[in-house]
Amino acid sequence: EHAGQSGNNINPAAVPLLKRSKSERVIRTTQGVKFEDMYRNYQARLENFIAVAADPCSSESNVQIAQKVLRYRNKIMERRQALN
């Protein structure tokens, strides 16, 4: 450790995998370790589907696909809530 630096800078790679979120993935690259949050990626895709479904400039087939994905997601969420 360099002089003058506190030990508060925690390297995420040093945190044990058990303490990390289960939605977080560790990806090793040539530049180092990269962390990918699958929930954040899922939310981004979901927001994209909502935008495509609501955009009047989207093609009809893209709108239909986005609407179908969102209907399927809603059904899955309803089933999960019913099981809990």
What is the compact description of this entry?
This protein has 84 residues and is an alpha+beta fold.
Tell me about this structure:
Helix content is 49%, strand content 14%. The protein is α+β, with helices and mostly antiparallel strands and 84 residues long. The chain has a domain at 39-83.
How far apart are the termini?
48 Å
Low-confidence stretches: 1-7
Portion of residues in helices?
40-55%
Tell me the major beta sheet: 2 strands, antiparallel
Strand order of the largest sheet: 1-2
Number of strands: 2
Mean pLDDT value = 76
| Structural class by secondary-structure content | alpha+beta
- Helix and strand succession? EEHH
Outline type: flat
Q: Please, how many helices?
A: 2
Rounded radius of gyration (Å): 20 Å
- Proportion of β residues? 5-15%
Protein topology:
Layout lengths: L23 E6 L2 E6 H17 L5 H24 L1
Antiparallel strand pairs: 1-2
List its salient traits.
84 residues; alpha+beta; two-stranded antiparallel ribbon; 2 helices; 2 strands; 49% helix; flat; disordered N terminus
